[in-house]
């Protein structure tokens, strides 16, 4: 894979710019498996639908930042520690800290992403 660090940074930058769905289309593999809150979603279509629902539920995005990152080139894994402050429809304002662990394939696409909540 060419420059895992650059691919991961490009993805994170797109998310920070609010280009969540565009980033998903660009960086996630057809066989993506995403894990969050003890639930697993498999396949591009199921995960794309989930991301669309998330984006559509955003009333306001107040702040987001990446607090730390790590890249394991040998195992094609990246980690990003995120802080998000947003208002979600029907939920209200939420401040969230989480770590995203991504496994990438040789084509530069994410095949697995797991989220760990902090705090």
Question: What do these coordinates show?
Answer:
The chain has one domain: Nuclear Transport Factor 2, Chain: A (Roll), CATH 3.10.450.50. It has a six-stranded mixed sheet. The longest helix is centred in the middle third of the chain and has 14 residues, at 44-57. The chain contains three helices and six strands. By secondary structure, the protein is of the alpha+beta class. Strand 5 and strand 6 (110-117) form a beta hairpin. The protein starts with a helix and ends with a strand.
Helices and strands in order, then pairings?
Blueprint lengths: L3 H13 L3 H8 E9 L2 E4 L1 H14 E15 L4 E12 L3 E13 L5 E8 L2
Parallel strand pairs: 1-6
Antiparallel strand pairs: 1-2, 3-4, 4-5, 5-6
Helix pairs in contact: 1-2, 2-3
For the CA atoms, what is the radius of gyration?
A: 14 Å
CATH class placement: Alpha Beta
What distance lies between the first and last C-alpha atoms, to the nearest angstrom?
Answer: 34 Å
Q: Pairing-aware structural class of the strands and helices? A: alpha+beta
Average predicted local confidence, pLDDT: 96
Question: What are the defining features of this structure?
Answer:
alpha+beta; single chain; 6-stranded mixed β-sheet; Nuclear Transport Factor 2, Chain: A; globular; 6 strands
Structure summarized in a few sentences:
Helices cover 29% and strands 51% of the residues. By secondary structure, the chain is an alpha+beta fold.
């Amino acid at each position: 894979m060419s420059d895992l660090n650059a691919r991961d940074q490009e993805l994170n930058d797109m998310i920070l710019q609010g280009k969540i769905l565009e980033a998903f289309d660009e960086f996630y593999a057809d066989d993506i498996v995403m894990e969050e809150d003890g639930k697993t979603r498999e396949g591009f279509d199921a995960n794309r639908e989930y991301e669309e629902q998330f984006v559509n539920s955003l009333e306001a995005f107040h702040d987001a930042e990446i607090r730390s990152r790590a890249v394991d080139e040998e195992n094609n894994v990246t980690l990003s520690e995120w802080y998000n402050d947003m208002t979600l429809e029907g939920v209200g304002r939420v401040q969230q800290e989480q770590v995203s662990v991504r496994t990438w394939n040789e084509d530069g696409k994410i095949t697995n992403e797991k989220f760990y909540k902090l705090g």
